[in-house]
Design goal:
The protein has 133 residues and is mainly beta. The chain is built from one helix and seven strands. It has a domain of 93 residues: Ubiquitin-like (UB roll) (Roll), CATH 3.10.20. Strands 2-1-6-4-5 form a five-stranded mixed beta sheet, with helices on one face. The site of FE2/S2 (inorganic) cluster has 13 residues, from loops.
Length: 133
Amino acid sequence: MSGGPNKAIYGEITRLVPIHIGGLTFDVPDDIPLIRAFQYIQFELGRMTCDWSRFCFNDTIGCCAFEFRAPDAEAPDWGRACCQRVVPGLVVHTLPKSSVMLDERGEPLREIPAAPPPPKPGKRARPPREELP
Ligand code: FES
């Protein structure tokens, strides 16, 4: 796609990794803030639309709240897309406000397809928030 923002907003892209938005899978730059990955999906892949002028991009007003499941977690959690970094296999359940997924023709998707199932019991769960560095 052309006409998007300066690609420097993504930082140095070392590799692309898959993340899931519901049942849709997108390869995005690894270890960047998820809000930048959403912009990558919009401007580089043409599969999302969002009014980014509504976002602070700096974790001050909670404008980018979204529900997600880390790859090793058994249950979803809420976070801020400007704080959560991309990891392979991250599952996004709900998008920040005003974000809309698009199909391959650029038409809005009314519903996001179902997300992949959570990991089988016995896999390591994400540590409680207090234990995170
Ligand atoms: S972009 Fe505003 S809190 Fe994340």
